[in-house]
Design a protein that fits this description.
Ferritin, mainly alpha, 78% helix, 160 residues
Length: 160
């Protein structure tokens, strides 16, 4: 086995978190779809797909390193949001939590001198910069537009 039991367990947890994020982003997409903001909904569906792909990358890593795959149960996500700002803030907070989790995985890989894991996790570290930055920018657009001018979000995403 090329992966420690401790790192294997944490990556299994992360797989669940990535799949949970995929489900959560579908719920956020549904919120925006229900407000006729199809461009924003489409962006969150794309985010959902990306999170599922991230989970699959972790699955493949465990299998390639001879680890034991144990995908945890996926809890139901938040299904209702009072405002667009709340929905995007929830997504941003989620990405900050993912960043914390990825950093914890990287810290363990460094501590264990696991160069394979460090190389693998490096991609996720870089990805989190993009994810947090994107959600932070979207939140700032929502705040500037205000709830009555959310069509500006559609225009922003169309030009992004």
């Amino acid at each position: 086995m090329m992966i420690s039991k401790e790192l294997n367990a944490l990556i299994n947890d992360q797989i669940g978190h990535e799949f949970e994020a995929s489900h959560q982003y579908l719920q956020i997409a549904a919120y925006f779809e229900s407000h006729a903001l199809k461009g924003v909904a489409k962006m969150f569906i794309k985010q959902s797909d990306e999170e599922r792909e991230h989970g699959k990358k972790f699955v493949n890593y465990i299998m390639e390193t001879g680890g034991e795959l144990k995908v945890p149960a996926i809890p139901a996500g938040k299904t209702a949001f009072a405002t667009a700002e709340e929905a995007v803030q929830y997504a941003l907070d989620w990405e900050w939590e993912v960043t914390r989790r990825i950093n914890t995985l990287m810290d363990l890989a460094i501590k264990q001198n696991d160069h394979l894991a460090r190389e693998f996790l490096g991609w996720f570290v870089t990805e989190q910069l993009e994810e947090v930055s994107h959600m932070d920018t979207l939140l700032r657009v929502v705040k500037q537009a205000g709830e009555k001018n959310l069509l500006m979000m559609e225009a922003y995403l169309a030009h992004e």
